[in-house]
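Late entry, written up from scratch paper. The run itself happened at the end of the previous shift, but nothing got recorded in the book at the time, so transcribing now.
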Amino acid sequence: MAPLYKLVTAELGVPVDEALLAKLSEANSEQVKKLTDALESAKTNAGETEVKDAILAHGDYFASIGDKDKATEWYEKAFEKSVGAGTKLDVIFSIIRVGFFWHDLALIKKNIERARKYVLFFFFFYK
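Output as recorded:
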């Protein structure tokens, strides 16, 4: 939660507790290392679905700690690895959720338009 903590303290003008920030940063680094190890393991020992899931886990983690830029970056990577329209929609909805949290209307609008393409695909081909 270090990125969100830094942002909130800056927005509120509250002094940063350096010990807490160091603890949060260390916890973030440990979790990112675990996720990176899982991704590398999936790349060498598993299939494309597992790789996509490991990439998506990165995006979910960065979204949970309040790092919008890294979350959207990892979600875009997961989108590229996704094959079916349903999984692509899942990733798009995750990006839209990040946009709602950060009140990023441009990100929301862009991804709603992207999602509309896949919803229309379902409508026309899966009646």
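The chain has one domain: 2-125.
(Scratch paper discarded after transcription.)
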